[in-house]
Amino acid sequence: YSSHSTAFIAPPKPTVTLQPSWTQIYSGETVTVRCEIQGGEGAQRTYEWRRDQSSTRSASNEYTFRSVTESDSGGYSCRGTRGSFWTEWSDVITLTVLLTGNSLQEPGYSRGLASI
């Protein structure tokens, strides 16, 4: 009966990666977040992305921010499903978007920045 025991093993925990791989990025740059699940290459999955407290479902395991802004900063995590079994949530990866020196600052976005 040991051949049936694999059905009860929890799906692997996903990993969120960033491309480029650093967690601090300047506003206006492009960054891709990707949800990687071991052993599921080529499988049809549904993914759920969570950013801080809000979540959204997607058929894609990655999302590209073409021109990031400070409002894209936050903690991102994901999980995936194949059939009715969801993986657990990945660890949170925190993306911090920094203002570039020459970007136009909107009112309310200057808090917390050191005055030069």
UniProtKB/TrEMBL annotation:
Task: Give me the stretches of Polar residues compositional bias.
Answer: 55-74
The GO annotation for biological process reads: cell surface receptor signaling pathway; immune response
Q: Which GO terms describe its molecular function?
A: transmembrane signaling receptor activity
Q: Which residues form the Ig-like domain?
A: 14-94
Recorded GO cellular component terms are: external side of plasma membrane
What are the alphabetically sorted keywords of the record? Disulfide bond, Signal
What Pfam families does the annotation carry? Ig_3
Source domain of life is Eukaryota
Q: What is the protein's species of origin?
A: Neolamprologus brichardi (Fairy cichlid)
Name the coiled-coil region(s): none
Q: Where is this region: Disordered?
A: 43-75
> Would you tell me the protein name for this molecule?
Ig-like domain-containing protein
On whether Signal is a keyword of this UniProt record, the answer is yes
**Looking at the keywords, is Iron present?**
no
